[in-house]
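Example record

One chain of 169 residues, shown exactly as stored in the release files.
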Amino acid sequence: MTEPLGIQSLERIETMPLGIVVERRRGVTAWAEWSWRPVSVIPGAGPVDPPGRVLMEGEGWTHSHAATLTLELFRTDTEGYRLNLSQDPPRLWVVMRPGPDGEELVPFTVTASAHEGEGYQVGADVVETVPMPAEVIALVRDFVEQHHVDVPFHKRERKRHFEKDERRR
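Predicted structure tokens for this chain:
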């Protein structure tokens, strides 16, 4: 049975769950006891309950599976994916926001689009990049090859603010 085509199904084509690994490190300033930053992703990770399962730890730091988020690829953003794949190395942008306690940062969303990642950098969100694993590179590259359409650039002609015969006077 197929579902009716809607706007969502026309735009979003591919998804992949990604486990977000976050490093919690003792702060180096008097203003923050801890700092959080994403360090990697786990392709195909299942849900984590409770969030924050410790994977590795050392003196003053821990790496934990903070959340599993869905990477969504959209046909309308293949240009952003192409730009990202042209970088060395390709990256994923992880957006983090303050958690319920106000001190901890928790993963909010993840994207492979350079354009979307840049858009989140304007505002209060914390946006960090992590290297894109080979499995995700293959998925994004296949998606772009399948769905990218070059859109020719057309320069718009500006409208004049007044008529040539100056009837306004």
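Notes: Residues 7-147 form one domain.
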